[in-house]
Design brief:
By secondary structure, the chain is mainly alpha-helical. It has 8 helices and no strands. It has helices spanning 9-24, 33-41, 44-50, 59-71, 78-88, 95-106, 111-117, 122-149. α4 (59-71) packs across α5 (78-88). The radius of gyration is 16 Å and the shape is flat. The chain starts with 8 loop residues before the first helix and ends in a 7-residue tail after the last helix. It holds the Pfam family GLTP. This is Glycolipid transfer protein domain-containing protein. It comes from Brassica napus (Rape).
Length: 156
């Protein structure tokens, strides 16, 4: 495998979200739109590997999938993705969307196939996924607080 970070999106995602987490955890957290947008844009290649059914996914969904993936050791992504979808999005989607997502779950690559698409070895990918999940928590909390402080709510 090539050693270039340009070919390894998990490294970029991990680094960007660690930087965001450090920013939002600082005494005076001020996240620039550019920094936040850049970090979020790095997640796009991951969704491209997962297929069209996951273009709608959000940070909370990704964190839940990766947390579930850490617990299970098999090669399938369908079970953790399905459970995460059921927890995060299913209650907000109509029957047609739910069926489309269920169909999309059948087309998910295996863990091995996903790692090949991402040009990652399993051990390195695991490190970067854990780092992303851990860094996501303070970023999500910061965004929740930002929305609540502006009375925008977080239930939409």
């Amino acid at each position: 495998m090539a050693d270039s970070n340009a070919e390894r999106p998990l490294r970029k995602i991990s680094t960007a979200f660690k930087e965001l987490a450090a920013t939002v955890s600082s005494p005076s957290p001020e996240v620039s739109v550019a920094q936040f947008s850049h970090a979020c844009s790095l997640v796009s290649p991951l969704f491209g590997c997962l297929g069209i059914a996951f273009k709608f996914a959000q940070m909370d969904y990704v964190a839940k999938i990766l947390q579930r993936r850490r617990v299970r050791g098999n090669n399938s992504l369908k079970d953790p993705a399905s459970k995460s979808y059921d927890q995060v999005f299913r209650p907000h989607h109509g029957w047609v969307i739910q069926k489309a997502v269920a169909l999309g779950m059948c087309a998910l690559p295996t863990r091995s196939q996903l790692l090949t698409m991402l040009n990652e070895e399993e051990a390195e990918a695991k490190i970067h996924m854990h780092s992303y999940v851990n860094a996501s928590a303070p970023v999500i909390a910061y965004l929740d607080n930002l929305f609540l402080s502006r009375q925008l709510g977080i239930d939409w």
